[in-house]
Amino acid sequence: MPEESESHLRRSRRAKVEDLRARGVDPYPYRFADRIPAVEAVARGTPLAPGETAPGPAVRVAGRLLALRSHGKTSFLDLEDLSGAIQLLLSTETLGDEVYRRWLADLDPGDLVGAEGLPARTRRGEPSLQVRSLTLLAKAIAPPPEKWHGLKDPEERLRRRYVDLLASPETRARFRARSLLLRGLRRFLDEEGFLEVETPVLGQVASGAAAAPFRTRSNYLASELQLRISLELHLKRLLVGGLERVYEVGRIFRNEDLDSTHSPEFTMMELYWAYEDYGAMAGLVERLYASLAARLPEWLPDSAAARTAPETFRPPFRRVDFVEELEARSGISDLLGRSREELRSLARGVGATVPDESPAGTFLDKLFDHYVLPTLDRPTFVFDFPTVTTPLAKRHRSRPGRVERFELYCRGYELGNAYTELNDPEEQETRFREQLAARGEETYAYDADFVEALRYGMPPATGLGIGIDRMMMALAGIPSIKDVILFPLVRGRPGESSVEGPTGPP
RNA sequence: GGGCCCGUAGCUCAGCUCGGUAGAGCAGGCGGCUCUUAACCGCAAGGUCAGGGGUUCGAAUCCCCUCGGGCCCGCCA
Q: Which of A11, A109, A166, A492 is deepest in the core (most CB within 10 A)?
């Protein structure tokens, strides 16, 4: 526990804890069984007439006290659990003067309590629980945020997400929706016959994408390790091994900035499907998004996104060709016939500031981002990227200079990236070497064991990658990635839980 | 990496332009109230004005530095 100067609020609550203990009451008891959700308790009271109390049976609810409104001999307490809130009705009439006063004196907003009582409606018609017994389940020493405004400070909402969650039903609903979305995704893939697998986070070299890895060290191996930046190369090894349809939902790590659409650790879903190509994959992606969007109203009710998503993601999705669409939007002809220098000056012309020595594909990507991306306001597959930036995809079966790859875009978000996978070991080796030659540092690391795996024979296959955080953002209409990650990376503050002693490589 | 903005009580915010004893609401304490639901009424209390330095008779306010955060741009899938 950090030493912090105790506010008078905390002192007062701590004093109540001591007082409870002195009276033999455990402020942190072990269990409160047989409770029903608050909304269900509300439903039991709703059919009653105003002023009426049900004869029975008694019900039990548990949750956090939001507000206490005391009127002398009657008091109203709002209790909230994950399902919703219910009003507790306390009166000297049912409890007796002494017990009533004792309970009110013991309790504060933020406390966790269990209540048993009879469903009732107040004279004003509010469904309530006429309380017979009340049990403190955990005394809150720290006072909750203000009941009306909640926790607004964006920094505190991230640093102390638990306070954001306890104070905000909207935040709880958002993260619950993320969980349900993930469950829906797994169910869909399971039903399609895919096996969920787990592959290593730690390895000698992180490959499968172009990104700076986090580095750490194994004491056992006495060597540097890297955290994965992609799931791809291990999952393809599983295709070699005969698992045929596999997917993984896992955290990957890229040593980059945190901004509204990037997080240094984020959740990636990748799947690999033997004996199919990227055309089949486009069909699967379409069905996947349509099925998830259709259920969004159930997962995140009362949201604008839930109302529009089922229609937005109704198949078939629009399909465009990377080069044709870019040429049409930009008015530039013969893009693939142009030199790297020409493409660079075209990219510079639209404000891109990438390094001069970047490969041609980088300049094409910049042009695409400028001319085409803003026009993709409904789900659109972009097909057949130029070969240059995609070392893991198979060359297009009929179009020179292209690979069999598509990305799905919607409203500026990339919602999926798929290839017909390269499975020729010699070509894979060449493409890795070209990458290394072209860019040096941040590029696809050469993974010799992966090439060796391909030499045993990887079936023809298609693969897909979807960033789950962005999928959640796009479906639920949330503009910042920090709002879909429970505990985003934040800078440490002096004096806060620092690690002592040696912590890793210098 | 560049620019703009923010940090005041546990929480939500005034006060800063134009320097002069630190303010409100909620929450907490005491008292009152048998139907409220942002309950209400009365009384009393609550501050490292993010941190450090400077200017000044005097700094929450002006200047500089540091820390933390937000937004935009750039970079990065």
A: A166
For residue A459, cis peptide bond before it (omega within 30 degrees of 0): no
Whether the CB-CB separation of A282 and A318 falls below 8 Å is answered with no
| CA A149, A155, A158, A159 torsion-angle sign | negative
Å between A489 CA and B49 C1'?
A: 29
Through-space separation of residue A106 CA and nucleotide B39 C1' in angstroms: 20
Q: How far apart are CA A305 and CA A239, in angstroms?
A: 37
| A31 CB less than 7 Å from any atom of strand B | no
ipTM reported for the complex, 2 dp: 0.88
Q: How far apart are the first and last CA of chain A?
A: 29
Residue A136 shares a structural domain with residue A171: no
Amino acid at A468: I
Residues A296 and A217 in one domain: yes
The secondary structure of A304-342, three-state, reads HHHHHHHHHCCCCCEEEEHHHHHHHHHCCCCHHHCCHHH
pLDDT 10s digits, A32-49: 999 999 999 999 999 999
- Tally the C-alpha atoms within 13 A of residue A68's C-alpha that lie toward its C-beta: 17
- Decide the pairing of beta strands A74-81 and A59-70: antiparallel
**Mean pLDDT value across residues A397-411:** 91
Residue A115 domain flag: yes
Report yes or no on A428 lying in a domain: yes
Number of domains in chain A: 2
**A438: pLDDT confidence band, cut at 50, 70 and 90?**
low
Identify whether A116 is part of a domain.
yes
Q: At what angle do helices A468-476 and A304-312 cross, to 10 degrees?
A: 100
DSSP label of A49: P
Q: Which of residues 283-342 of A touch strand B (CB under 7 A)?
A: none
